[in-house]
Amino acid sequence: MKSRFAAVFLSLTGIAALAAMDEPLPKWTGNEKKELESSGWIAGGVLLTDEPVPDEPKPQAATELKVEQPTAEEIAPEPVPSPEIAEKFLPAYFAERPKSFLIDPQGLLSQADYHDRLNFLNYHASDSSIDLFVYVIGGNQEIPSEVREEEMIERFFSQGRPAAIVYYYLGAPQRSVVYLSPSLTDAVSAAEQKRALASSVMQAFEKIHPSEQLEAFLVQMSIRIYWMERMIGGEANAGNDLPAFSRKSPATAKDAGKSAKLEWALSLARKFAMPAGVTAASLLAAFIMNFWLKRRARYHFPDFDVEPRLGGAHAAGVGAVISFASAAVPPASQRDQVPDYLRRA
Amino acid sequence: MKCPRCVQRIHRAATSCPHCGFTLADADVRFGAEEVRIRCLTDSAGILRRGDRERVQAAMDHITRRFPQIFVAIYTGSLGEISNLRQFGFWLLNRSAFEDVPVTKPNAAGILITIDPESKAAGMVFGYLLDPFLEESDTFDCLSRAHAYWLDGDYADGIVRLLAHLDSVLRKRSRQARRDPEHFERKVLPPAQMGDLVRRIRAGHRPAAEEESNTEVTK
Fold it and tell me: What is the pLDDT of residue B30?
């Protein structure tokens, strides 16, 4: 196919060349060239000037493109200096021990997100002996310097149930800070607190949306608090036993609940494993012993004096007779042992 | 208790069948009056292979171990009619001398299973020791367990099944006998004489005082 196209192309080119050769080129006549050169004509001069070529349209002047300027919203905001939390919100944040587990007086979370997160924190409180309080702060906000967090926590959280308090910066989970109520600070090491915070931040960074980040953060923190509880209860020996990160941890509150229940079931199992095992082993041993005794058991019959019958010195007891000549005559039909003369042929 | 020949019921101390007059002497006429020396497992019909024999022997030994008073014997051979099987079993248990059974164990402690592969019938006979404890229905149940196997010609498996069921029946009877031996003893007591019965009835109608004076007189 290609060779056919090539042949056609070559033949067309040849024909065109032949046609061109037919037309003669123009020639100078007489002193035409000299006369023109004397008048100042330069061969090819037309092409050497900036002047427009005669009979050619004048080029239009270039017009500026009208590109719409970006709006103020579209331009990425310049990093603004960290603003402090507005003074009007400070009492709601720091004036008293919070009545809710989720403190968001600025309304940084949407209504739905707020309820979801609060529900989870309530669930956590019902399932755990350590409450989790979360202060939601803007990602670029700062807590005013006059607020001393440690002192505030000591004041508000010395009494009541033990609690973990988290200052969570929405959209910037890496800025989050965790504090423990005074009753817990001695029991849970600073290293463990750091690990808990780091793993929670890690979980949060697996999400993109700030609300989802908060959710992941809380779930992981709840799990870590469970481990803290266990550690305090003496069930875990050291912080090293605790998993550093639980990447496969449940992503939702429901799953976290399931996990907690599973752990509870496991702890029960551990608690009763030994007695159950001992009981099972005892039962098995008793069963084996019973089986062995039965196997070794010897049975005796009382020896009664039986008067001989039919002249037999040893036996006269004629038991049953069964025929297995045909499957059509099952044992059931032979149960009545009748005299042969009464039997049907 | 039934007569081996006419299969009619006979009473406890019948010296001969009240219906047909059968005695061991009649069986002797048919099978011979001499003592027969056999082993507990005698496969005259040759229906058991070597491996089968071992399995069957093991099952028999198991019964013997568990019930030290009794033993089990199995005889296979061609006997002709079914009626002969009953009489043959009765005769064999009375006339045989089992070589591999200790002399301390009389044939009265034996359970003999007879299998006739030609007429395709099998029977069970037991000695006087088990007379109070085993019923005809028990032996029938044992034989029924083997029926399906014997139909297929699988004699060894049938016998093993039979002995397994016999083992359970004997255990049950032994336990019952231990709990209530009188119940079984009553079965073999000699039948009450007519005079005893009348005396007992009269004693029931007589005043107690008169009965006491009578006893004093007899003293």
Answer: 86
Q: Indicate the pTM of the whole model.
A: 0.49
Count of domains forming chain A = 1
A127 part of a folded domain: yes
Burial class (CB in 10 A: 0-12, 13-18, 19+), B139: buried
* Residues spanned by the domain of A95: 87-251
Residue A160: partners with Cβ closer than 8 Å, 6 or more residues away: A97
Burial B115-138 (b: 16+ CB within 10 A, else e): bbbebbbbbbbbbbbbbbbbbbeb
Nearest C-alpha neighbor of A219 from the set A100, A103, A127, A150: A127
B87: closest CA of chain A, how far (Å): 9
Cβ proximity of B20 and B5 under 8 Å: yes
Question: What digits encode the pLDDT tens for the residues B30-41?
Answer: 888 888 999 999
Of these ranges, A44-58, A324-338, B162-176, B205-219, the one predicted with the greatest mean pLDDT is B162-176
Is A301 inside a domain boundary? Answer: no
Q: Write down the mean pLDDT value for chain B.
A: 85
With CA atoms as reference, report the closest residue to A132 among A164, A103, A177: A164
Query: Does residue A206 belong to any structural domain of this protein?
Result: yes
Number of Cβ within 10 Å of residue A139's Cβ equals 15
Distance from CA of B123 to the nearest CA of A (A): 4
User: B49: which 2 tokens?
Assistant: 């292979």
In this complex, is the C-beta atom of A308 within 8 Å of any C-beta atom belonging to chain B?
yes
Mean pLDDT, residues B44-65 taken together: 92
- A93, A103 Cβ separation under 8 angstroms: yes
Q: Read out DSSP for A110-156? A: -HHHHHHHHHHHHHHHHH-SSEEEEEEEETT-B--TT--HHHHHHHH
Please determine, looking at this structure, whether the domain spanning B34-183 carries the CATH number 3.40.50.150: no
pLDDT at B8: 85
Residue A175 in tokens: 């800025």
Determine whether the interchain pair A317/B133 forms a contact, defined as Cβ–Cβ distance below 8 Å: no
> Domain holding A207: CATH number?
3.10.310.50
Looking at the complex, report in whole angstroms how far the Cα of residue A328 sits from the nearest Cα belonging to chain B: 10
Asked casually if ipTM beats, i.e. exceeds, 0.90, the reply is no
Do the beta carbons of residue A165 and residue A137 sit within 8 Å? no
End-to-end Cα spacing for chain B:
41
Eight-state DSSP code of residue A344: -
Which residue of B lies nearest to A303 if distances are taken between CA atoms? B129
Tell me if chain A has a CB within 8 Å of the CB of B159: no
Nearest chain B residue to A296 by CA: give it: B66
Is residue A75 in some structural domain? no
Asked if B138's CB is within 8 angstroms of A302's CB, the reply is: no
Check: CB of residue A253 under 8 Å from CB of residue A123. yes
Domain ranges of chain B: 34-183, 193-218
Residues of A in contact with B15 (CB under 8 A): 309-311
Taking each helix axis as running N to C, give the angle between helix A210-232 and helix A190-205, from 0 to 180 degrees, rounded to the nearest 10.
150
Q: Name the token pair of A248.
A: 């496969």
